[in-house]
Design a protein that fits this description.
- The complex is a heterotrimer of chains A (240), B (222) and C (497).
- Chain A has 240 residues and is of the alpha/beta class.
- Chain A is 53% helix and 12% strand.
- Chain A contains 13 helices and eight strands.
- A four-stranded parallel β-sheet of chain A has the order 2-1-3-4, sandwiched between helices.
- In chain A, strand 7, helix 12 and strand 8 form a beta-alpha-beta unit.
- The longest helix of chain B has 15 residues.
- Helices cover 29% and strands 20% of the residues of chain B.
- The N and C termini of chain B lie far apart (54 Å).
- In chain C, strands 1-10-7-4-2-3 form a six-stranded parallel β-sheet, with helices on both faces.
- The relative contact order of chain C is 0.13.
- The chains are: A alpha/beta (240), B alpha/beta (222), C alpha/beta (497).
- Chains in contact: A-B, A-C, B-C.
Amino acid sequence: MPRIALFTTCLVDQFFPGVGRAALKLLRRAGCRVEFPPNQTCCGQPFFNMGHREAARPLARRTIEVLRPYDAAVLPSGSCAAMIRVHYPELFRHEPRWQAAALEVGRKTFELSEYLVNVLGRPDAAGRSEGTVTVHDSCHLLRELRIQAEPRTLLRAAGRRIAEMEDAAVCCGFGGAFAVKMGPISGRMLSSKLDRIEAAGAPVVCAGDVSCLMHIGGGLSRRGSAVRAVHVAEIAAEGL
Amino acid sequence: MDNRRAILDAIRAALKDPRPQALVPHRERPRPPAPALAKGLDRFREVFAELQGQYAEARSAAEVGAALERLVSTRGLRRVFATDTPRLARMNVRETLRRLGVFCASPYRPDEAGAHPRPADLDALVTGADLVIAESGTLVHVAKPGEGRMTTLTAPLHVVLFTADQVVDTLEEAIARLGPAVASGERSCVTLISGPSRTADIEKQLFIGVHGPGALHALRVG
Amino acid sequence: MDVATHRFRENAAAALADEPLQQALAKALRQAESVAAAAAAERADWEDLRARARAMKEEVIDHLDWYLDQFAAQVEARGGTVHWARTAAEARAIVIGLATARGVRLVVKGKSMASEEIDLNPALEAAGIRPVEGDLGEYIVQLAGQPPSHLTTPAIHLARGQIADLFHRVLGVERNEDPDYLCQVARQTLRGLFREAGMGFTGANFAVAETGTIVLHENEGNIRLAATLPRLHVALLGIEKIVPSLTDLAVVMRLLPRASTGQRLTAYTSWITGPRRPDEDDGPDELHVVLLDNGRTRLLADPVARDALRCIRCGACLNACPVFRMLGGHAYGWILPGPIGSVLTPALLGTDRAADLPFASTLCGACRDACPVRIDIPALLLHLRHLIAELPPAPAADAPGGTPPVPLAPLRGALERFAVAFASRILRSPWLFNLSGRMARAFLWPISRAGWVRWIPPPFNAWTRCRDFPLPARQSFRRWWKENAGAGEASGPDFTE
């Protein structure tokens, strides 16, 4: 039976552990043997995005070593999955052995909804719950991994109705360090996104990346909005 | 020569490091299937109309004459220049315009002082085309003696006569046909005209007829 | 134009506060993006075209010296003259020299980003020569004394009311906001100038090496007039504008108008090969082509960043960019704004002058999807960020603008490097990482409400200016896993919460 590593990501581990538990439930329900390798911390993306590749490399090596022994690695995050699959080889362009290891691990690294829907073919592993949600398409998930239908498939399999917002695919304005480095621009982009979310009329907005959800959720809280920002996995796992 | 050498040397030096190969190919956005498009004259008419061009057909010199007469009277045209190319001559264009009392002698050869006549004086231009591209609603004009660059540019109304055998479907076919003429260097200017002159520079609002004809008529003859 | 790349943050803040600008941009850019998408959707071969255009541009870049030589030889064989300008100053001198030698007092210009790049207009004026922009959008910004704010729609940031005010004030005409009226005023005013001008000045969208042809796309007809009526036609183009053959030209002619303005072809596309022939009725007696380097060979020397030379200046990335939509072009501080501008500006001016620009992006990738020549702009931004963060700044030897290089605020840079090193160290240790999370929670819990923190004391307060910060969880996932790990790996934790 294949051994799956659950790489929760640093933000899920410390801020949103419920997302990790939801991912675990879904994968188990789909028949996977899932482990949480305890040596994991962070894939290094924040540093890489800021241009600090020297700081990112040790974290990337650690991540590669942690994931390598498994048959597959599943992450409830599009941006971290993209970091491992798309950017790790670039990070080790001048270190052939690590580059090869990065490519090897990248080939078996998947985002959660991608894994459940495309690899396992088990969207039915979702639980059952009611209500309408709207969906924000996180940028790395959408444009690097090309995952757009899969989260929706999961949500529908869980019995949810989806009220699409206008501009679902427009960036929320988080962008990692951009959120603080370019705070005013980030805030304005957030404001646009929140307007669209509220206009969609659903009590919940879902996304596949907690980074977006932190930013959107923080904005909704600041506005005093009744809309909650919840990870796709948590909605899909309700009732399990 | 100095600068040329300096730039070329700088380029060669710059290129000594090859570009790194992509390690993980980027996935492109999936695209929905594109609609099937019409071809030939049907396609040309469709697109030309979208561009706000006016299309008409005339089977004979007499019909061409009638079409021009209609245009002259409905638009109140008083000064019309027509080029004297074989196609227009066959359709008796200049005779018709003279008969209607609107023909204007060639204003486009510069006078001895090298001054150009005032374009604002002309109400309309009648020329031929060298090629027609159906997919983009394009009339292709090669500037030639008797039918220079200005003959397709400087009046509010431009009428272009063409025949069905001049129609190609695609830009690639047009280039295949025109390429040798361009490569031979015989002529200095080929213009692809795809609709009347326009701008959307103010709030993206469309305005027709800026520095070129605001009314473009394509008349298929024969 | 005055280079203002080092004032990006202030300019961005001003743009965000400018309500009329925000409305003008929102409306115009949304429309631009949607017509371009519709035009691309019509072509079943759109992705194939993008792939071929990319391959063709890579081929040109890889053999740029050879293709430039071929182009120059062909232009000269057809009676044109080719000039090579290493710098903006040399290019200005060439153009002014040509004008002065022929007693030119008035130059009518077609839209040319390259001429903005070299600051041509002020130099012409200083030499007693009057430049008039023939393109409506350029004419409007020229009257307003502003630089263009977009690659293909220069006055996109202005609303009709502002243009009406401008025409009323500068031209003395009646104040009327109707765009039709405004267009007619511009047309009338410019009409006579084309005949009077001693020089027509244009850029070029493409230059075909095989035949020595320059290709000019436009919708208004002013470029045709500028390239025909005056006796002297001068065309300025960056050395990267070359395409090998007419067949290759077809590929980019399919892509540029669609990606740029959603048109199958622009109203006029002129292929100009040399000056008028002796037996032709009209056309300039002289054609001078000025090939411009101005930092492009330096960009070429960076094997990663050289991909940016594929750019065909269509503006599609600007129209797609959620950040550009909020800022408009002026905030970027130089002639090339938006996503591609955030790569080209630091690359051409020096990363020390424009260090903020590569960070003015969330790396969302909308630009990459929109680019007709498949430039991976996010990858190039990451590359520049890496150069800025980890390598000493690379100043451009002859960069334009009166502003001296502004070093990246050294304290800011040092603090950031320290914070990054510190955080990286913590993240290398699972227990340190978990401990830091527990400490953050302990610190923030007293000032939180319902799981959110409204305000964090400086220096960490940047986040909380416009949104709340989440409180770290009571129990991290790794703690939960450890405490709930059942017998053996196969069963794993129980979900008893």
